[in-house]
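Subject: sequence -> structure tokens, single chain

Hey, anyone have a minute? Need the predicted structure for the following. Not urgent.
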Amino acid sequence: MSGLAGRFRRVVLGVSGGVDSAVSALLLKRKGYEVIGVFMRNWDLGDETGHCSNDADAEDAEWVCRKLDIPFHEINYVKEYWNDVFMAMVEDYKAGLTPNPDILCNKNIKFRPFLNHAKEVLNADVVATGHYARTSFGEHLEKYDPRNGVRLLRAMDRQKDQTFFLSQIDQTALQHTMFPLGEYTKDVVRMIAKSAGLDRVASKKDSTGICFIGSRNFQDFIAEYIEDRPGDFIELETGEVIGKHRGIHMWTVGQRCNIPGKKNPYFVAEKLPDSGNITVVQDEDHPALYSSIIVTEPMGWINRPPSSLYQSRPVNGQVQMEGKYWKRLECMAMLIPKNPWHRNPVSDHFRIVLPSPEHAITPGKYAVLYQGDECLGSAKIIRPGPSLYTMDTGGCRTRLQQEREEQTPNSPSVTETPADPKQQ
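Reply:
Had a minute. Here:
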């Protein structure tokens, strides 16, 4: 190894019990690093059957370490995860938001605290994970340069790229993190695992969804932690109450609602935390679900804010949000200054403008900002801008009103005044 690699000779790897961390360990060991495997236990409650997937994952992680002849350790982060990830998620749901616990976990558990443990307990200066991502410091930190800081880059495997979930990692932790799989595709990783005799994990399915929910229905799960706060389903176009629900924490924007007594499904257009009500629409592609503006909290920058923001100019790039298609969209991001005489890219909110309206922009989720391959950072979404329905774009609101009147022939036209029942 080079002199620089020798400086970071001991690497503490987060082993998850999956194929990605297993192959990461193998690749690092082949490069001559002294690898120490650490399994992070973040959750210890069973699912609806009493089974905790963490136990099986820990067994697989230990098996991999024995197979590769590297030390295995386990860290218990259950308390930290409960306080800094799970309860933060619960509070967001109570407030009517739709949070992303994976981003919170990477921000609060899997990097900075993990790096501190590696330094203080295992006498190592760097950590590694099996995430599909790259940095400007290189696969093995061969371009390490703390004066200029590190930049987070998309993985070569675009389908498996995980920079979205790493978009809130702080600079110090990222400077001391290796991503051995950044230049590999998933198919190649599985082939490497099979050829190395790591059969136990080579074909193991990727973990998906929120780990602690398991196969349970989300509404049943969240009801264990948040008391019901009943409210009304209100049809947006008519203002009529058409049903009841158990609480806004059980629903998200764009979600399908099968309301008792209604033949056709409805879809959540907006959650109203103050009243506890939910406005709904009948069409999944209703114009009330589309907006071309995203308003966010202050941006968490991975490196430095782009210089254009200090010059009252927007950032041109791409934005990615959690959603049905996980698209990266061209955008302009601009500050919403608290003080018109002082622009602060670190503490000011942002307005992200899209070239065309996007479906179901959801408060609580994250807008992740990119410029080409670089992930600049991310911010929590506060709200979408005005919808197509609100702005009556293309006369959509008038058209929908006319269609509704045609389906109800006896209703008064828009120019008629309904009779006053007191005079009848």
